[in-house]
Amino acid sequence: MPPMPDPIDDNRDLAALGYRPVLNRTLGGFSSFAAGFSYISILTGVFQMFHVGYHAGGPAFFWTWPAVALGQFAVGLCFAELAARYPLSGGVYQWSRRTGGRAVGWLAGWIYLCGSVLSLAAVALALQATMPQIARAFQIVGDPSVKADSARNAVILGCVLIVATTSINVAGVRLMARINNIGVAAELAGVLLLIVLLFARARRGPAILLDAMGHASGGGWGYLGPALAGSLTASYVVYGFDTAGTLAEETSRPRRRAPRAILQALLAASAIGALLIAAAILSVGDPSRPELGQVDGGLPLIVKDVLGSGLGRLFLVDVVFAVFVCALAVQAGTVRLIFAMARDNNLPFARWLGRVPRRTQAPARPAILVGTAALGLLMLNIDQPHVIETLCAVAIVWINLAYLLVTLPMLVQRVRGRWRPDRVDPSGGRLFAMGRLGGVVNAIAAAWGLFVVVNVSWPREAIYGAGSWSRFAAPLWTLALLAMGGSYYLLVQRRKAGGTLAEYLPDRAEHPPETPAADGTWVPRLAGND
Predict the structure, then answer these.
(1) In terms of residue numbers, what domain contains 183?
(2) What is the DSSP string of 365-390?
(3) Whether the Cβ atoms of residue 98 and residue 105 lie closer than 8 Å to each other
(4) Assigned domain for 154 exists
(5) Tens digits of residue pLDDT in 392-435
(6) What is the dihedral of CA 472, 474, 477, 482, to 10 degrees?
(7) DSSP states of 29-44 as a string?
(8) pLDDT of residue 1
(9) Is residue 434 part of a domain?
């Protein structure tokens, strides 16, 4: 039987990385996996965005799922290696800062922070895809078949959800983890049973998965154009697997558990999502129904039609629970990012944001700030008919842009011969590393990140609407985000004293904290591995 993890050793390891432990280290292996899986949340994302992929590419859009999953797996392998090397709160921000330097790290953290707030708002909107189909009473305003009314109602339901998740995140990681674990167990059981039932009621063979349903007939690109648009569904679902790394300082033995949890969450979500989409398409009664490509139809409509109203509604209740847990995980990851940046004096009001109550040992003020920002974002877009598609698409762009600011500096370090991944775990054994294929995988991950940013930013009328400005929502918002972040860094952040706030420095580390090299990157010093 393996020895029980020693939190003292984990905290000593954290001190060697330059920080005093202040968070509650209570998460085990399943909780770490659950954090990443619940952020991806198959029942949330696929039920919310199935109609987008089906509308763009017909049944054949299924093949965009494995393509996106493979690209994101390359990113996940890079993140697993970084999580083993830097088991710190903040994940993407810390990894980018320690491979690309202070400026790159700050920009990655800023983009990821804004993208995470946007993701929380987008996830909250997912309730509109299920709750009105459970009971008409959940359509509080207007008619669900009218796009503007559906968008307004989605904002109302989303605001209620964000208030609830904010309250739980303020209460602390222990309560959040318990709810998250129950939610992930319920989601896994529900989605696997749903897949079995849909396959058992399949009405056609696998050939339907090759049916483009007329989408390949127009334009010179054949089916490539519709496939690129249809990949928005998978691109929206398959991200957030880095959350296990973001919660590393609240996880026991994080150097081992975080990399494993990242890859396990990604693999499980990819496989289950592919099976769910395939089962739904094979079981649908009439593949040509226009409702399958509409927000008030899509996958929830298929489930109710195939399984019947009663059983179908029962599964939709499980979907609502999954949406709640997904929003909880998104907000938890965002809170840890704010805490990590504030601790390094990389945000305005850093001391105020970074303060951790002793009673809960969890950052409370960032949770309130994130919840308030997401609520404001929803209220500003309450009269936007394409609010769901637009927020989801822009969130994809921002999150994957932040990912690119991790994989690209990491690749530069490899090319320069400065990446030495083979390190010994302070508790014994070897850390996760990609070995000789690391450079190839890293290059694929960086190229994939660039492709996703360009593809989802493309001004498609089907996603962003027909308006001359709204179609360019993703590139315009992204440029504004980069301009704001870059200006703030040059005018304010660069002039501030860098380094960890005094109250978060280790009281007495057995090894000196790591320090930046001449080029601004970081060379790790592991406890017990001098």
Answers:
(1) 31-422+445-496
(2) HHHHHHHHHHHHHHHHTTT-TTHHHH
(3) yes
(4) yes
(5) 888 889 999 999 999 999 999 999 988 876 565 666 667 888 88
(6) -120
(7) HHHHHHHHHHHH-HHH
(8) 40
(9) no
Q: Is residue 166 part of a domain?
A: yes
Give the least confident one: 257-266, 319-328, 459-468, 510-519: 510-519
Residue 262 to residue 252: CA distance in whole angstroms: 15
Q: Which two tokens stand for residue 429?
A: 């054994």
Q: How far apart are CA 141 and CA 120, in angstroms?
A: 22
- C-alpha span between 235 and 53 (Å, rounded): 10
For residue 232 the two structure tokens come to 């928005």
Residue 519, φ and ψ in degrees, nearest 5 = -90, 5
Say what the pLDDT of residue 405 is.
Answer: 96
Task: Report if residue 453 sits inside a domain.
Answer: yes
d(CA 415, CA 409): 10
Give the pLDDT band (50/70/90) at residue 439: very high
Give the total number of structural domains in the chain.
Answer: 1
Rounded to 5 degrees, what are φ and ψ at 43?
-65, -30
Phi and psi, residue 140, nearest 5°:
-70, -35
Distance CA 213, CA 332 (A): 41
**Rounded to an integer, what distance in angstroms lies between the CA atom of residue 356 and that of residue 340?**
12
77: domain CATH number is 1.20.1740.10
Name 251's bridge partners: 27
pLDDT band, very low/low/confident/very high, at 510 (cuts 50, 70, 90): very low
Lookup result for tokens 């040992």: 361
